[in-house]
Amino acid sequence: MPEKRMTGRDWFDKVFVESHGDWLHEMVSAIVHEVMEAEVSAIAGAGYGERKAERNTHRNGYRERQWTTRVGDIDLHIPKLREGSYFPTFLEPRRRAEKALIGGIKKAYVQGVSTRRVERLCQQMGIERMDKNFVSRMVQDIEVEVSAFKSRPLEGQFPYVFVDARYEKVRREGRVTSMAVLVAVGVRIDDHREVLGVAPKVGERHLLWRDFLQDLTSRGLHGVRLIVSDAHEGLKRAITEIFPGASWQRCRVHFMRSMLAHVSKRYQPMVSALLKTIFAQPPLEEVRRELRNVVDALEPKFPDVAKLVEEAEDEVLTYMSFPPEHWRKLHSTNMLERLMRTIKARTRVVSIFPDEKSLERLVGAILIEENEEWMEARCYISEASMAKLKEPSAQLPPLGGSWGWKRLHRESKGRQ
Prior knowledge:
By secondary structure, the protein is α/β, with parallel strands linked by helices. The protein is built from 17 helices and eight strands.
């Protein structure tokens, strides 16, 4: 490590006497170190060892860095400053290239490309190996971005919230476990979509969802009028606890799948077509009438399905209490399902995650990317129709819909 600037004699001896024939390599090394010393002297306002009252700062040792050049790898001893910082000007283009490379590798990581494939890509670009510090910086950058994204304040009202989960394999305590990845997406009152939160969790479903939804409210989620999800009991219970004033819509697609699971494949097309007729006859009164007709039609041959359809009436029709312009976007979690498919396409490359942090990094990075695209996209629901939710006359049903009608209908059937 250099301790002083070289004299002309020192420079000659280092390049031509001590180089052992590799004089070009030593010449480049000597020149760049002289350049660094000159740059630092200019910043400090004094040369090496120079005592000067009016100076900007003092030197504070050196830091090591390897510089790859056409004449080989050169070990740089970059001067450090007690106040402020210094980075060699001749390395600035490399710094920009390195940032671009880190960006490229991060992009490949988010796309689900394996580490080995990334390494092969780097080798094709002339980088023989990925330095551990380089990989560490890349991972740290992603972790910082994901952490900031997960903890950011949620500003504005989100009348519509969609929640769902998918499961990924993760190594925990020496064994592979199935970990839930909880995701929430909201539609703001100003008509744009936004990823509200993501959390990999293991444990009892009700507690997982309760903690997840509680975190959203602590970050500012408010103004929720409708929550759309599958009919998991733990999730439903958590929704009633955290959002007692909101309505709940059972995903219509999941509802159809659940009903068809009780029917043999031979009859599934017929039952599916019959169930679809329920939702083809707006307004709401006509839909309820058609649902009763479908229940009556199913009862002789599929009594279990008929009972399930009747019990799910309010759950699958809640969305019809909202502005008709929104119905197509509210009756299911299709928008969230597409997001989950994007996550699946990227995570299946990894197959089994080494730990929870690695899963959170990848899924979080994917959602940040998707969220940025949503911010730049056209509105999800028109602003004019969203304005209807602000009208005082918009009296919406409580969670689960109009339970009174269902009770009266059952009582009337019992008297028949």
